[in-house]
Design goal:
Distance between the termini: 23 Å
Strand content: 5-15%
Strand order of the largest sheet: 3-4-5-6-7-8-9
Shape: globular
Number of domains: 4
CATH superfamily of the largest domain: Ribonuclease Z/Hydroxyacylglutathione hydrolase-like
CATH class of the largest domain: Alpha Beta
Helix content: 40-55%
Largest sheet: 7 strands, mixed
Structural class: alpha/beta
Radius of gyration: 25 Å
Number of strands: 14
């Protein structure tokens, strides 16, 4: 794939040979994998579609992409189908099949056939409803007993049928009442004989886990909410946080009032054992990595533990003063001790990436090592960027379990950021924060003193983007772009840079994906259910 993307940089004289070598590599990969590995067929289908007709690969492209559709269950996740539909659409368009091409385009979630980036993300962005981590899906974790609802909004919904079959137990209340309604009604259509909802346990009182409580209250006046006894501290922190992120993350329908009005019927201060409808339930208060009002809900007889966002990679919302690294480590110990077969998190990517107690036990060792490296660097006076650039890899990582690799890399950046922020004052070692220069000051420097013109800005941004320095290009645009806010060329350059940043972070950092898409008001339609 990387070879194919760089074909345009090869001189025309050598390009045909370069492409033929690339095709030979693809053929070898298909032979070695027996033609049964999704990613290999996916890459081959994409590359073959993009080649000029001169190379005669259109039939191969059609077959490979069709194989990917037929074997979608072999994909790493549903987001990989975006490009399959998109490229099938391009093939149909080249054949003059306009209706078929537009059908594939709609299924891809793209708006046109001129995308400058490749997206293989299950994420979606919508102005009204905000971010969703996955396509809509209802899964039975324990058949007929434990249901997981993904993609109905920012957070997951879980429901448990009690042992006696007479009560339905919910885990978390979602972000908004309208989203909770859609999710709950979808569950009712999927499993129409479910009993009445009587209980909802709250894993922690963040925006996206309590905001839909009014809908569930309206279903049953006898409904009982359980939450930690210190839930109000977390809600107060959210109410006082910067308010400009809520709409971007949770959609225009989100209201902070729905969070502030949450009040549980039962508060939990210590380890509590319950029976609801014959179902044994352990409520285990933890500090967790994100909030101090976290609570694990353990169903030992079902082998299920609901863990909320205790290992959200950001160690608390990035725009809020929270997060507890030691709390994260202690919570991992609880999970390892209980060792549930099913570990269900508050968001689909967390469940997918932080999937087992065994993996978490190894991850903890690597995170402890990382903490020591960061704190040593802080004491040494290193700037934060230098710590990131050190590419800190624990000695035990590469020789350990492969399923730890991605979780560690997902966490690493934000562990560094949170530990640095918690251990450095507002005057940082590189003297960042000593003075208080804003964007207007930087724009004045670049435009008024250095004479940066619109043409120079666009040319510099395009050059930075071509070199893969998207963050630097974005910074330049943020510093000086306001002086050229009516420029079409600057707007086009800005769009390219933020699309590239979305592409870069699409499978490892959903919050950056949200922020960057918001910078250019870029919506990513949700993939249809079942794709």
């Amino acid at each position: 794939m990387l070879r194919a993307q760089h074909a345009s940089t090869v001189s025309l004289w050598h390009r045909i040979g370069y492409v033929k070598d690339t095709l030979a590599i693809l053929d070898q990969a298909k032979q070695l994998s027996g033609g049964r590995v999704f990613v290999v067929n996916w890459i081959a289908g994409i590359v073959h579609t993009e080649l000029p007709n001169f190379f005669g690969q259109r039939t191969a492209a059609q077959d490979e992409l069709a194989w990917c559709l037929k074997n979608a269950d072999k994909a790493p996740h549903a987001g990989w189908l975006r490009e399959v539909y998109y490229h099938l659409g391009k093939l149909a368009l080249a054949d003059g099949e306009q209706a078929q091409a537009q059908g594939y385009l709609r299924r891809s979630g793209y708006q046109g056939f001129d995308r400058p980036v490749t997206l293989v993300t299950p994420f979606s962005e919508d102005l009204a409803s905000g971010h969703a981590f996955a396509p809509r899906r209802i899964a039975e974790i324990v058949p007929g007993r434990v249901y997981a609802l993904s993609g109905f909004e920012f957070t997951e919904y879980y429901f448990v049928v009690s042992d006696d079959g007479r009560q339905l137990i919910g885990i978390d209340a979602g972000t908004r009442a309208d989203a909770a309604k859609v999710a709950y009604e979808a569950l009712g259509a999927y499993a129409p004989s479910l009993p009445e909802l009587t209980t909802v346990f709250i894993t922690h009182s963040h925006w996206d886990h309590v905001g839909g409580h009014k809908y569930f209250r309206a279903l049953n006046p006898r409904l009982r909410f359980y939450a930690r006894s210190n839930y109000q501290e977390e809600i107060a922190r959210e109410v006082d946080a910067p308010g400009n992120f809520g709409t971007q993350f949770f959609g225009e329908r989100f209201s902070l009032d729905d969070v502030g009005s949450f009040k549980p019927d039962v508060t939990i201060a210590g380890h509590t054992d319950l029976k609801i409808g014959g179902t044994r339930i352990e409520l285990i208060p933890v500090h967790g990595g994100e909030t101090h009002d976290a609570m694990f809900i353990h169903l030992p007889d079902q082998g299920v533990m609901f863990v909320g966002d205790f290992i959200m990679p950001y160690l608390g919302a990035p725009f809020v003063e929270e997060g507890d690294f030691q709390g994260l480590l202690d919570a991992i110990d609880v999970v390892v001790e209980k060792h549930p077969p099913h570990l269900l998190h508050g968001h689909e990517p967390l469940t997918r990436n932080f999937a087992s107690a065994t993996m978490l036990a190894q991850l903890k060792i690597d995170l402890v090592w990382l903490r020591e490296q960061v704190l040593t660097a802080v004491r040494r006076g290193d700037e934060r960027a230098a710590i990131h650039q050190a590419n800190l890899i624990p000695p035990s990582l590469l020789g350990g379990q492969p399923d730890v690799y991605q979780p560690y890399f997902i966490l690493r950046e934000h562990v560094i950021d949170r530990l640095y922020q918690q251990n450095v004052g507002y005057w940082q070692p590189d003297l960042e924060g000593l003075e208080h220069l804003g964007r207007a000051d930087r724009a004045e420097l670049f435009v008024d003193y250095l004479g940066l013109s619109e043409k120079q800005l666009v040319r510099t941004v395009e050059r930075l983007a071509a070199d893969g320095k998207y963050e630097l290009a974005a910074s330049l645009l943020e510093w000086s772009g306001s002086r050229f806010e009516h420029s079409t060329s600057v707007a086009n350059a800005k769009r390219l840079v933020y699309l590239k940043l979305m592409e870069k972070h699409q499978n490892t950092d959903p919050f950056k994906y949200i922020i960057y898409s918001g910078k250019i008001s870029e919506q990513t339609p949700q993939l249809a259910s079942g794709q």
